[in-house]
Amino acid sequence: MKWDKDLSTRHGGLSARDRIVRSLCLLFLVAGVGILILTIVYLFIESGPGKGFPYRVLDCFTGEWQPLATPPKLGMAHAWVSTFMITGIALAISLPIGFGIGLFTSEIAPLIVRRLLTPSLELLAGIPAVVYGFFGAVTLVRWFEKVFQLSTGETILGAGIVLSVMMLPFIASTSAEAFRAVFREYRESVLSLGVDQLTMFRRVILVRAFPGLIAAAALGLARGVGETLAVLMLSGNTTAFPDSILSRGQPITALLATEIGETAVDSEKYHMLFTGALCLMLLVLLLNLAISFLKKKVYGTLYAS
Prior knowledge:
Strand order of the largest sheet: 1-2
CATH superfamily of the largest domain: MetI-like
Low-confidence stretches: 1-11
Order of helices and strands: HHHEEHHHHHHHHHH
Radius of gyration: 24 Å
Strand content: under 5%
Shape: globular
Number of domains: 2
Distance between the termini: 51 Å
């Protein structure tokens, strides 16, 4: 009887309960996309659209930051260079280690080690950024002062190292899922041909898991570009243009966080800060779209062959 009642409530192949769930999922999707669009619109409005907007965008990537000069100089080139240097160092460290951890936890590690390692990675992801910042301040900063004979150990390199640790759990967990899915699909068929495990990993697993590894790198990149507090505490937070990884710097997120609280609303500096925030938002979106396009291209190339 209950089965007949469910059939009688069906409409277009879906029951009333299924239609409610589908409507809720659609509502959540629209809400998420709407919040993203509203955020971009708000940043665009607060950046002061008008005749001066293109010049602010140009200054955002080229000029130097001297807001107290006469006339004020509100360029953010130093901040973008610091951001790219710190994120590049973090990716260079966290990607190989994260991929190695992902491979180890997905296939090589014994079950008991896997059960211990997976929660540990999740715990790393849940540690607040300020804790990472304090840890780096009492370890790396002091160590850099002694080893490199610096007046202060706050450097681009130190911020990049700590940021790589913060990115590591996201890269490791995502790459582990990619490796696990490929191993599950190809392990038995490849090993049955008499291929050793190293060749299987190099010729089959790594190639087939490459789209998932791209997704892991994208997740880590988004995490790194948007980080504020830890890099603010460790990079030195100076407006000087960094000339090496041992220089002090000021990432764009740190610049926005430190300056917006003491800026008059609707001033030129206020509009410039929101222009920088808008450019950062659009940059992250463009990076995600580019990586998504690359991932689809790789999928198409792999499964077309």
